[in-house]
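subagent[fold] <- orchestrator: predict structure for attached chain, return tokens only, no commentary.
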Amino acid sequence: MKTYGTVQRTAPMKMSHFTSITTKLTDKKILERSLKEMPNVTLKVADKGELIEVRGHRGEKTQAEFKIVQDNGYDFGFVNNGNTYELVADM
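subagent[fold] -> orchestrator:
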């Protein structure tokens, strides 16, 4: 195994617990309309060209185009990976 230098850490490394699940969803308008039609779902939609903060475990955060807000402080998000939308969550 080759080494390409060393890394010094001054603080413990924080591991993100966010999981990305690839979907076959490709159409932003259909995804948004479908999420809005779901009962008891609080949906936040990012402004054009912007992203929304998605909350996870121990204050971890990531960015997404759509955010489903939950009362427990953990959100679900959908972010475009260039081809499809991925579901991101930290459960």
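orchestrator: received. Logging for downstream: Strands lie at 19-22, 42-45, 52-55, 61-64, 66-69, 76-80, 85-89. The longest strand covers residues 76-80.
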